[in-house]
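User: Is it possible to get a 3D structure for a protein together with its bound compound? The compound here is pantoate. I've pasted both below.
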Amino acid sequence: MQVFVTEKALKNRISFLKKKGLSIGFVPTMGALHAGHMQLIKASKRKCDITVCSVFVNPTQFNNKEDLIKYPRTIEKDKQMLKENDVDIVFFPTKEVIYPEGMDLNVDIDLEGLDELWEGEFRPGHFKGVVQVVKRLLDLVSPEYLFMGQKDFQQFTIVNMMLKKMQIDTELVVVPIHREKSGLAMSSRNVRLTVEYRRKALVLSRMLKYVKNNYSFENINSLEDYVLKQIKKEGLRPEYFKIVEGKYLKEVSSVNEDSVIAIVAAWAGKIRLIDNIIIK
Ligand code: PAF
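Assistant: Yes, that's possible. Here is the predicted structure of the complex:
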């Protein structure tokens, strides 16, 4: 496993590998790696000759300062996991490498309001930061394939829109949510859950499953109301629970659309969790 910190060293290595005709798969992360990330790495290793993983806690996507400060950082453990999973290249840039002074890195594309819905409503500016850092990382890594998790449904939908609109020659591969045995969706933030909230948080995956099993018998609005009540009853503070279509994440009044998903965000004590399920 090779570890790079600077732009120049990384780019040199990647251009050397590309000249040899090797395909590059890229897994961007913010560290605090867990088994969910390893699924992304495995998917990349199956599809590509070389797997590059970046670890960078991107400040521009945090709308909340405290969240940025408290975001778990487990660099040594991350390195160990990446090594054990045979990642070829790890990129650990500093803030100065990603955002060099004087470089205009704003990504000026119309996200068609997708960045203002759901997560965007509760985390203003978040997706602008995500798009900015992903674009910058793609410029550095220039991968054939980009691997992202289904758990951040809105994130990968927006990144896909960016790839299309900017005609970036990278294909997005979405990897299904990896869950703990209990049903809890894996997340870097889970390490901050108390034992009690870890148990209470199971209501999210339980309710998503319930919706998948019952959407065809019940009215959407009453289903959403029921789920919100159950989440509150368990002691979580929901921000949204919605059944939406899968392309622009617009609310639906019936499930006749081609693709329908249920999305949820809720606070489990001081930890904000998101989850989703593809209904069809
Ligand atoms: O999903 C994440 O961990 C981050 O949003 C990403 C894609 C690495 C960008 O910082």
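Residues 28-30, 58, 61, 130, 133-134, 152, 155 surround pantoate (CB under 6 Å). The CA atoms of residues 122 and 239 lie 8 Å apart.
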